[in-house]
Amino acid sequence: MKAPSGRGGAPYFPDHGDGGYGVRHYDLDLEYRVGPNRLGGTARLSAVAAARLDRFALDLGAFRIGKVLVDGGPARFRHRHGKLHVTPVRPIARDAAFTVEVRYTGNPSPVSSLWGGLGWEQLTDGSIVAGQPIGAPSWFPCNDRPGDKARYRIAVTTASAYEAVANGRLVERRRVGATTTWVYEQDEPMATYLASVQIGRYQFLELAGPVPQRVYYPSAAERRVRHDFGRQGAMIEAFTRLFGRYPFGAYTVVVADDELEIPVEAQGMSIFGTNHVDGARGQERLVAHELAHQWFGNSLTVASWSDIWLHEGFATHAEWLWSEASGGEPAAAHAERWHARLAEEPQDLVLADPGARHLFDDRVYKRGALVLHALRRVVGDEAFFRTMREWTAAHRHGTVTTGEFTALAGRVAERPLDAFFTAWLREKDLPPLP
Ligand SMILES: [Zn+2]
């Protein structure tokens, strides 16, 4: 009924999500025509009411709604400004399980945001989804808040000339006439913004390493892709040693056949643009960054966007650790250089609550990484990496808060770290590197 407050204060996107219920499973049957950018779908959500619901809301962009069913029966609905308000025939009791089915069709258009359009986007010859943080309603009806994680089945039907890649395991692929239906199942709970469908004329190759890895790419990029992702298997090995077990069954990379401003993570997947592969590993730090999000962001997901540093600080810090592990500059050199740079920048951000406007401010990324390097110096390598591994194990496939991380770090180090974390996370001035 009301917007969720999260666990960390005022929500950054009060128009997104509904705290009145939680979704357990999304079943999406989608049909997409690439040329006209036409998406039709049926979404079936299995949910549980957190309170008695006279009505509830889903987030969904400007599609034409054919029908809304609650528990199999027609329900009244009103759809405007990205919200689908549903009034079931009878109120739903607190803790009751219920289903919602929505049939919809239209031209998916990105959700407008402070960072431009987010979500489903048409490419020159295909489509991508870049959902972070509020782009999911551009392609399916959802409870769009990061802490409401659910399992998914995603079926996509499109022309057979295209590959359709979605999160999870490919469980079925059937060709009927000129179209092919691809069915994926995502068994581990996933936040809405990490759900993804990538459609394009791609080839793929498999990479060697401790988990199955597949890279989809336009054929012209093959040589560059082979070289630039050539060390990804070793990267997974290094991160498994440092952060604990890789959280998913496989890892998929899509190099879209277009230039992208920045790469983007999805669950069990990352999406790069052709501009991110140069055949010289010039962007390898981004390969490490996106991979690290599988632990930090995808397995461990913030309950509230105010804690974004738990995603971006950790992924940026992982870039430095990969540099160190692969014989490049040690993490300390990166930390000292970025500390000196941040000292020159305005110090007007609170890292653990930067405000929606600064969600993707580079200072959040770099100061977030610096907190971790500073912690490593204060508690030593043994306690630091034990903290990282206990963190990913304790909250695997769950949601997390800053308070949970600082409490765990203090427990592992067996010493109070309150003053340390307050200075780095809650105050604006940049503390000196220990
Ligand atoms: Zn990132």
UniProtKB/TrEMBL annotation:
Keywords: Cytoplasm, Hydrolase, Metal-binding, Metalloprotease, Protease, Zinc
Ranges of residues in domain Aminopeptidase N-like N-terminal: 25-194
Catalysed conversion reaction: Release of an N-terminal amino acid, Xaa-|-Yaa- from a peptide, amide or arylamide. Xaa is preferably Ala, but may be most amino acids including Pro (slow action). When a terminal hydrophobic residue is followed by a prolyl residue, the two may be released as an intact Xaa-Pro dipeptide
Cofactor(s) essential for the protein: Zn(2+)
Location of the protein in the cell: Cytoplasm
E.C. no: 3.4.11.2
Keyword Metal-binding: yes
Segments forming domain Peptidase M1 membrane alanine aminopeptidase: 236-424
Family designation: Belongs to the peptidase M1 family.
This protein's name: Aminopeptidase N
Organism of origin: Actinomadura graeca
Lineage: Bacteria, Bacillati, Actinomycetota, Actinomycetes, Streptosporangiales
